[in-house]
Design brief:
mainly alpha; rod-shaped
Length: about 100
């Protein structure tokens, strides 16, 4: 009976150390995969999310400013057209 307990204890220790080794191997594999993915992504011509969002905000601001300036130009052109029209004679009557 004593031999069976010792054998079971040895098997349990062996299984426990194998599980520990497997967990360590898994962590190392994950770290290597992550490092390789980061290297591959670093070589690609991509834009990080933060930069994309910053440029998107700048484009929205520029678009809003452009719309304001377009409205201002339309108003100024209308004012210029109104001022450059010749004044029609008022009060002059022609006799027929």
């Amino acid at each position: 009976m004593q031999t069976e307990n010792r054998l079971l204890d040895d098997l349990a220790r062996l299984a426990s150390s194998a599980m520990g080794a497997a967990a360590g191997l898994r962590a190392e594999i994950e770290a290597r995969i992550k490092a390789e993915l980061e290297r591959i992504l670093g070589e690609l011509d991509h834009v990080p999310r933060e930069e994309f969002e910053a440029v998107k905000a700048m484009a929205a601001k520029a678009r809003a400013e452009q719309e304001i300036l377009t409205e201002r130009i339309v108003r100024l052109e209308a004012e210029l057209a109104r001022r450059s029209k010749p004044a029609s004679p008022v009060g002059k009557r022609t006799r027929a």
